[in-house]
């Protein structure tokens, strides 16, 4: 089992994200992954730095820990040619420690460039075309592409790593899991649903399965739940809501009646390691073998110390299935 740390870029300033990544490497995490959004989910988050600049700073100051986006939508706010170039550069700067997490995006961040918000089946088609373009550009030389949604004209990425980065494709259902199997090297999810891993495997996927594990450490349970509700109540609304609402004000309204009891039903929280491990086991049993720990608690450094002393060893001993 490989264990990662989620860099929650909506909740902290860019410099703090770099600091937390350095601390995560010191704490023994195998990888860090960072959200790639234009807007934060909620007004109180207050941040949303440019993920690729943060990754470059982390790459320059770390030596061992792997890096990943969790995840990037490559076809509205960006063009896949730009993501192909950005990922290749990040892989070079990190000495091949980078994994490109790719997904079909959320309206929250993608509508800002004024290109609308396509229906999910169109987004899946655009995701397939994006992955094809990225692979083309990583193969070297000049390439053009004319798809139903996207085009590429006479483009070449000049700085390429010897080995292309791994691509982990986010899935919330069987269709996206099949895209991950057909065009990706790994699966990425945020829920402990074994059917996602099963759909990925049945479609021929044989790579790692990444998942984000929701936790909230604090010295007492009340503080942990209070912080988790403040920071992550958007996460209990479900993927349909998370992918469709356009701005933080909409998430504020949608989550106004989320309670701490709602949070307690999905998060590991408080100072008891077993409560955190129980949530992680759900993901391991579902078949996920790369667990990115999300800390919604109020003290990142306290959580990192908690991981080192109480979570690291038992988490690595978890087995899938």
TrEMBL record:
Keywords, comma-separated and alphabetical: Oxidoreductase
Q: Name one Pfam family in it.
A: Bac_luciferase
**Which Gene3D superfamilies does the record associate with it?**
Luciferase-like domain
UniProt GO molecular function = oxidoreductase activity, acting on paired donors, with incorporation or reduction of molecular oxygen
Top-rank taxon, per record: Bacteria
Annotated InterPro entries:
F420-G6PD/mer, F420_G6P_DH-rel, Luciferase-like_dom, Luciferase-like_sf
**Keyword RNA-binding found:** no
Task: Please state every residue range assigned to the domain named Luciferase-like.
Answer: 12-289
| PANTHER family hit by this protein | 5,10-METHYLENETETRAHYDROMETHANOPTERIN REDUCTASE, PTHR43244
UniProt-recorded name of the protein: G6PDH family F420-dependent oxidoreductase
> Which species is listed as the source?
Haloactinospora alba
